[in-house]
Design brief:
This protein has 10 helices and 15 strands. By secondary structure, it is α/β, with parallel strands linked by helices. The chain has a 7-stranded parallel sheet with strand order 3-2-1-4-5-6-11, with helices on both faces. A hairpin with a 6-residue loop joins strand 13 and strand 14. Helix 2 packs parallel to helix 4 and helix 6 crosses helix 10. The structure holds NADP nicotinamide-adenine-dinucleotide phosphate (NAP) and guanosine-5'-diphosphate-alpha-D-mannose (GDD).
């Protein structure tokens, strides 16, 4: 019998990589898609199968984690072996603009899924993965951060994810559901959403290189992040779900870089000669002809910032035999190559 997985958030970066990964592992994959006025399935178009096809490996359903009835009826109908809750309003800055919606989707979304597992008496069948985040560490209490580090979230997004984290543990302890939290640090890829800083930097600098754009505007360049590759991180999610006993795991590279250092790597990859001038909001970067190619703008600063994130994944290495392989330069190169190819095809 093939294992059945249900992915909430299948149209996102991680959902697309995870769906592909599980199909390769011979799972039957069900995915939940939100209704949208424009197409939102571009990341999974290459694995999409028409509904009239027999024995499909991928089946899509409309649904939304803010809608209890749709969550419950999908879980009742599909009775999955594994549920991956990747659905979220995942942009930290946007969470300050839509805090209530973020709380409902990112916090209560996990509860709605867990409660459906319990209500339909699937506690002994259905395993649950919660997409937790290093944002929960926020104003960090220790460096590096591991599974025991206390949380101090600094955004409505981080606060909502802390609720999802603890409700997952609560249902594991109260109802013996196999439920685990991945505490994933930032992970990127060529299919990263365009408003996250890595993808924004790379697409703008590629366009500037080709004379299609003049300046890239950014916010805080001093924040430090622990950036890994999304494709490797979805494998860690799956590994957590195959254990005998459910637990929570930090997934990270153990190396951190500032946003400015990330920019430097991209400029070097694109063979720019460049120089930085000024400080904080007045920081600017010039190319060899003296054109200002990067400037800061206060609109991209957040009401509160997470200044530094650095993960300690030794538990994942010990118990899951998981370790990141790609470093920051590999990730930058892969993302730049993808972007340049896309530009030359346009
Ligand atoms: P993403 O690209 O923004 O994808 C989010 C997914 O959730 C999309 O499929 C989105 O659908 C869906 N979604 C949003 N609101 C929904 C709702 N109300 N009901 C159902 N689906 C909804 O995010 P990602 O980078 O793949 O991240 C996946 C998960 O891991 C998220 O929960 C994120 O918070 C968490 N996480 C990410 C990182 C990271 O660095 N990438 C690190 C730690 C944790 P649309 O396509 O229709 O928008
Ligand atoms: N998005 C964005 N846009 N960020 C900027 C910009 C800009 O123009 N300029 C500077 N930054 C800084 C942000 O202030 C932040 O410190 C850092 O770049 C990274 O921002 P994002 O790429 O938006 O990611 P994030 O760290 O806030 O959140 C991501 O990682 C979390 C895990 O730590 C998201 O994927 C979250 O969903 C995820 O949980």
């Amino acid at each position: 019998m093939k294992k059945i997985a249900l992915i909430f958030g299948i149209t996102g970066q991680d959902g697309a990589y995870l769906a592909e990964f599980l199909i390769k592992k011979k799972y039957k994959v069900h995915g939940v898609v939100r209704r949208s006025s424009s197409f939102n399935t571009s990341r999974i178009d290459h694995i999409y199968e028409e509904p009239y096809k027999k024995n499909r490996k991928l089946i899509l359903h409309y649904g939304d984690v803010t809608d209890s009835m749709s969550v419950s009826s999908l879980i009742k109908k599909i009775k999955p072996d594994e549920i991956y809750n990747l659905a979220a309003q995942s942009h930290v800055s946007v969470s300050f603009e839509v805090p209530e919606y973020t709380a409902s989707a990112d916090g209560l979304g996990a509860l709605r899924i867990l409660e459906a597992i319990r209500f339909h008496r699937l506690e002994n069948k259905t395993r649950f993965y919660q997409a937790g985040t290093s944002e929960m560490f926020g104003r960090v209490k220790e460096i590096p951060q591991n599974e025991e580090t206390p949380f101090y979230p600094r955004s409505p997004y981080g606060v909502a994810k802390v609720y999802a984290h603890w409700i997952t543990i609560n249902y594991r302890e109260a109802y013996k559901i196999f439920a685990c939290n991945g505490i994933l640090f930032n992970h990127e890829s060529p299919i990263r959403g365009g408003t996250f800083v890595t993808k924004k930097i790379i697409s703008a600098l590629c366009r500037i290189k080709y004379g299609l754009q003049k300046t890239l505007y950014l916010g805080n360049l001093d924040a430090k992040r622990d950036w890994g590759h999304a494709e490797e991180y979805v494998e860690a999610m799956w590994k957590m779900m195959q254990k005998k006993i459910p637990s929570d795991y930090v997934i990270s590279t153990g190396k951190q870089y500032s946003v400015r250092e990330f920019v430097d790597y991209v400029l070097e990859e694109l063979n720019f000669s460049f120089s930085w001038k000024g400080k904080k909001l007045n920081t600017k970067c010039f190319d060899e002809r003296g054109n200002c190619i990067i400037a800061c703008n206060k609109n991209y600063y957040r009401p509160l910032e997470v200044d530094t994130l650095l993960g300690d994944s030794r538990k994942a290495y010990r118990e899951l035999n998981w370790k990141p392989k790609k470093n920051i330069k590999d990730i930058v190169k892969e993302m730049v190559d993808y972007e340049l190819k896309k530009l030359s095809n346009d």
